[in-house]
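Sorry to interrupt, but I need a hand with the structure work. Leave the record below and I will have a look:
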Amino acid sequence: MTAAADNRSPAISVRGAVKRFGPITAVDGLDLEVPRGICLGLLGPNGAGKSTTMRLLTGQAIANDGEIRVFEHELPGDSKQARARMGVVPQLDNLDVDVTVEDNLAVYSRLYRVGDVRAAVDRSLAIARLADRRREAVDKLSGGMRRRLLLARGLVHEPELLLLDEPTVGLDPQIRTELWSLIDGLRTRGKTILMSTHYIEEAERLADEVAVMHHGKVIARATPAALIAEHAGRETAELYGPPDRLAEVRALAESEGLTVRPAGPAIAIVGSENARNGAIPEDAIRRAATLEDVFVILTGEEAE
């Protein structure tokens, strides 16, 4: 493949990928293409196949069937060449706790044969806002700082593609917001990012496009606004009340052809702008439809 053709090719191309673990099919005929320069969010409930997809892309798992390419490299045969062009931020913290922050980055710089190790370490520390912690032992860092260090490590060799596997899982909301700011900065600078998440707000805030995964395949993909318009309409009405009343209102709304989903202690009537015949009680709370409505409609699972 010529350099010009490579520049036009997608960063990731997956065709019909299947991955089984014994009787469990984790990825089931997955088709996925990630153009260069966008952030694509893989949104799905736990067990949807998101992390297995990431492992297939990094060569940590081998597909039973299908075709996987990262840039012009076919996996698993060209996994080493593909890994040299991608940065990976794993879901599980696998930092070396026996050395300092900057030593973690220096080791990875050398593994990736970075020419100027000191400059690479300095640049990554600056991006992750950890410059003042460079000589601190990793085991002294907070959970949020360790996640930022994982991000810095994934960027140390200036990869063309960044894979983020549940990048803020287990973090409290304030620290999660800090990570979002760092990731959004990379997105706005044109970095190609594939990010798996089960957090609705994370996908809405960071992803140019969202691919909803369920049972090992992508079941819907578009911009967040387009997904909402297609699957949830303009408005959702939420109603709180005793179970008997909620059941009665639900039955009436569904008889009018409306979609009703659980919403914690309430019900949510999706597409309520289309309601007729008093299907929406006056005490219902009307709000704009959201990606959460789409997620629950498509997967049947309540979101986080």
In short: The longest helix spans residues 173-188. The radius of gyration is 22 Å. The longest strand covers residues 24-34.
